[in-house]
Amino acid sequence: MAEDPGGSVVMLNLLRFKTDGGRECYQRYAEALGKSINARYGVTVEYLGEGGRALVAEDGQAWDMVVLVRYPNRTAFADMIHDPEYQALAHLRREALVEAVLQPTTPVQL
């Protein structure tokens, strides 16, 4: 939050699933968020894509899925992850993933 420039933030999610049911567990997590939590905090999924073979990357940088999620601001993100309803679902995300990157991004004017 100390680095918050204000305005919306798009979170880059790089996800690597556990081989035994991780993808399905993450699907349950995403569906549960979409029913009420996303609407409550103004969250929108801007892009959801399957990871392909990395063309330029170091070993270990292949990801199963890429998700871009827009939050109205960083406060909405912080409030969401502290919400008791979110906390009750967060275990699904943890159980689904071997590794993840969650990188906040802000628009750049060209």
In short:
With 110 residues, the chain is α+β, with helices and mostly antiparallel strands. It has three helices and four strands. The chain has a single domain (15-52, 63-105), classed as Alpha-Beta Plaits.
Describe it for me?
This protein is of the alpha+beta class. It has a single domain, classed as Alpha-Beta Plaits, CATH 3.30.70.100. It contains three helices and four strands. The protein has helices at about 20-40, 75-80, 85-95; strands at about 10-15, 45-50, 65-70, 95-105. Strands 2-3-1-4 form a four-stranded antiparallel sheet. Helix 1 (about 20-40) packs antiparallel against helix 3. The model has no long low-confidence stretch (mean pLDDT about 90).
Secondary-structure blueprint:
Blueprint: E1 9-17, H1 22-41, E2 44-50, E3 65-71, H2 74-82, H3 84-96, E4 97-105
Antiparallel strand pairs: 1-3, 1-4, 2-3
Helix pairs in contact: 1-3
Strand ordering within the main sheet: 2-3-1-4
The first-to-last residue Cα distance is 25 Å
Main CATH class: Alpha Beta
Alpha-beta content class: alpha+beta
- H and E order: EHEEHHE
Proportion of helical residues: 25-40%
Q: What CATH architecture label applies?
A: 2-Layer Sandwich
CATH topology: Alpha-Beta Plaits
> The biggest beta sheet, please?
4 strands, antiparallel
Radius of gyration: 15 Å
* Portion in strands: 25-35%
The low-pLDDT segments are none
Q: Number of DSSP helices? A: 3
